[in-house]
Each structure stands twice: as C-alpha cells, then as structure tokens.
C-alpha cells in the first residue's frame, strides 16, 4: 500500500478479518483513539489518513470518536484535517486527571494521575507507529500507552522501570482494538535519532501483545528480546510466540522487511571518552550505546575528557574529566558527577552529556538531570 487513498479500503479489510470489532459499539459510546502524534516532523507520526478512516468508521456506527495524544502537537497536526470532521481532537494535557491505582501492578504500585477520558471511555483504540527504540528494542502497541500520561508521570514511569510500567499501563486500560501504522516506520537510533522509512502496511488485532509479537517478527525482531513483551506474556496478557497467533490476511513472509536497529554495542567515539557499563542492565546499556552514537560528532568536536558510568560498581573506576552517571542504580554515587536517573533514562536526558561538555541546555532540559552541589555554581 503506497497511497493514502488506499488506506480506508485496507482498514475495512482488516476489520472484516477481525470479525467487525466495532460492530458492537452502541450509539453515543465514547471511543478513545490514541495515536502516536508526539512529533510534528513529517513521517514521525501516525498517518493522518488512517486516523480519519478510523474516526469515520466509528462515527458511522453512531459512536463519538475522540482522538487524543499528549502535548499540543496534536492540534498542529490535525488542525483543519479531515479527521477533525468525524472526531473531537484534544490534547490529553488539557483534560482533567484522576488519581488511580492499578490492581496487579508490579512497578506502578502507587496511584498515578491518569486523564479521566482514558478511564471512562467505552472503547479504546490504539493507533501506534512502529519504531525501533534505543532503550526497549522496539515500540508499538503496548509502548504507545506511555503517551497517555502527563509529562511528569512519564518521568515517574522511567524512574519505576519503563518495561514493567508499560505492562502495568496496559493492565490498567487494555486496548479493545489496535491498528498499527506501518505505512511509514521509524528506524535506527530512535528516539535519540532515527529516520522515517516508507514501508506500506497496516496491521490490526484485538490483543496488543499479539500485535506487537507479529509485527515485531515482520520487521526482523525477536519478540523474546523485548522485556515488556516477556513480562506481559508471563502475566497472561498475550502470546510471545508467532506460533500461538492466528495471522490472517497477507502472509508475513510476503511483507517481511528488516528494520535498521538501534545500536546495542557501546562504542566510545574517541580516546578521552571513557565508558564503564559492563554491569549495566540491558535497557541502560542500550541507552548508553545510543547516547554514544547520537553524540559522537559533538564528543569528537569537544576537546575535554569524560567518564561515563552505568550499572552497579563494586569499586568506582578512575574518574577522569567530566563525570556522567547513568541509571537509578548509581543513586548512592550521585555526588560524584552529573546524575541521570531512570531505568532507563529518556532521550531528553541526553542534555546531561551536553551540560557536562559545557554547552548550554534549555530550562526544561536542565530539570532532567542532577548536578552535585559542588558543580552547581559553575557557569554554564
């Protein structure tokens, strides 16, 4: 599928294969449609023609579709778009929140703030865009739910452990239907970097775990390498093997492609940048690998020395030059250098490395890492 005009027809075929999952919608039911619309760059968000097609089908059943995503980018992307003819378009940041607990949560074990729409909607449709990911391997149906939360809660998710938190959020509000946008995918060192690639497929399922497994295999991933999929399977939320999934429609072998993956090998870009991450957990290790790749040019242009440490340390390595500590497990050593919390940290926290190089960072970026008191007075 290479033309937006073909999207409605392909969507209808997918829904037919799934046995018309929207046919049970009652008139007036509120249907939440949650896409990936976090970025405005062309190709770096869900195909808007797909959103319009989904909203139209929902409206034709007499239900009330609401397209919602965190941040105000959704207004810029969908302003005057056909999708707004059928659905109410709203940023989740503008909606009232409710403090709610998640029964059975293993990571988000304390109540968190959740938009009331998420908890009260009658039917929930996730519309993710398939993306590689520098920390969690790949992002699709399940990971899309992290975008339901206010920005400060997203930070809490990473502090608590993003893999288990992703599963907890899917436990909190399971998706009744997922439609994956593979018309364009994001590959490479995303979200630190990455590029859009036109592929041309759509996939749908009533089970988010099954969809992530099938689409992961389609794109050349091993689903067993994804911690949140293993966790979801262990909790009984879906299959982990393609053999346990009924794949309908076009055979995967006819659509298969190999996405460019995020780096997993940590490579210091030059002498003078010392990295000690041999004991880091897989997610933080991938974060460091992605950071070294994303910042390679900047680190090579900078003439200073830097020590990057991630993972538990029985004995600290030599601390040479600017020191950057990556991950929650180094909290007790936080005064030794610039500390980036998270398991794993988020892409925005790359600003800590730039700060360590003496470069200016934005006001919001400065809130994303801790500087020890002895360094706070240093002009940046």
The number of helices is 15
Instruction: Quote the average pLDDT.
Output: 95
Form type? globular
Rg is 21 Å
**Percent strand:** 15-25%
Walkthrough of the structure:
The protein is about 30% helix and about 20% strand. It is α/β, with parallel strands linked by helices. Strands 1, 2, 3, 6, 7, 8, 9 and 10 form an 8-stranded mixed beta sheet that branches. Helix 2 links the parallel strand 1 and strand 2. Helix 6 (about 150-160) crosses helix 7 and helix 7 crosses helix 9. The N and C termini lie far apart (about 50 Å). The model has no long low-confidence stretch (mean pLDDT about 95).
Short note summarizing the structure:
With 380 residues, the chain is of the alpha/beta class.
Question: Which helices and strands, and how do they pair?
Answer:
Blueprint: H1 7-17, E1 30-35, H2 48-60, E2 64-69, H3 73-78, H4 83-86, E3 88-91, E4 97-100, E5 112-115, H5 116-120, E6 123-127, E7 129-133, E8 137-139, H6 151-160, H7 162-172, E9 177-187, E10 195-205, H8 208-218, H9 227-234, H10 252-255, E11 273-276, H11 282-294, H12 296-301, E12 306-310, E13 322-326, E14 338-340, H13 351-356, H14 363-366, H15 373-376
Parallel strand pairs: 1-2, 1-6, 2-3, 6-9, 7-9, 11-12, 12-13, 13-14
Antiparallel strand pairs: 4-5, 7-8, 9-10
Helix pairs in contact: 6-7, 7-9
